[in-house]
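For homework, think about our next protein:
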Amino acid sequence: MTLRQAQGERGAPHIPVLLDEVIEALDPQPGDIVIDATFGAGGYTRALLDRGAVVHAFDRDPDAIASGRTWRETEENPPRLILHPHRFSEMFDVMAAAGVAKVDGVVMDIGVSSMQLDQAQRGFAFSADGPLDMRMSQEGESAADFLNTADEKAIADVLYTYGEERQSRRVARAIVAARPLETTGELARVVRKALGHKPHDKKDPATRTFQAIRIHVNGELDELSQGLSAAEHLLREGGRLAVVSFHSLEDRIVKRFLREASSTPSASRHVPMAAQDDPVFFRVSKAIKPGEAEIERNPRARSSVLRHATRTATPAREAA
């Protein structure tokens, strides 16, 4: 029986993509300390706990943390599930404060969680109308704040950079003309009209705009880069990193990070060549993608990519 099947039989609320592949990459042993950098609905954490690991779970979303606090493992003495209501870019400092210098594994599932997408009131998706929010942490600038106050060029730049929207200027112009926007439905209709949506289109043209605004509001790509650096500093020799991404912008950052970290001296201009006789990571995997059976069960898995690597004894590079 696979981990996906086992979690399904237990009635798990969410089974993350590439679950079996992630756990195989991490190979957690009883007593191992593993960081789930993106706790969400806890799918990876549940599988890690079932293997006997101690899990430090990070999430900036207070709803995710509140849900995790109901798990019995938080009540054990000592607890095997330790929840941290922080961004995963902060995990090096948070773990140091918790008295943990090194860990055996780190897993990251980048982007918005299914739990967030499925709640219309969080404003991440256009499948159901909700407030134009998109904030993972539920604080700070919302999507509506940005779209209703930013100038047309700033909006176009975000759409082009983070959504790879070729017609970003046209969409930005339409957004500014339609202000104020308050709901996801309003935004989706504006984008569709600007781009000429056809009912038979395989992909809704609003998808790229929603992705771009979400990434901007949450600073997701900077968060990913900082999180990867933090994982590099936290992993012990032989520790394992597994990262699941969902679009090319994320995967490009992960791929570049692992390529540079697995290069022979000197991968970083901040570290003298003599100090890096070996790469920081080795046994770096190629892209691992879900099979057709998983995609059929969960269409959201279609674009997912897993990359993983094993840490060497070489000192971590300084952050750029």
User: Anything to note?
Assistant: The longest strand covers residues 235-245.
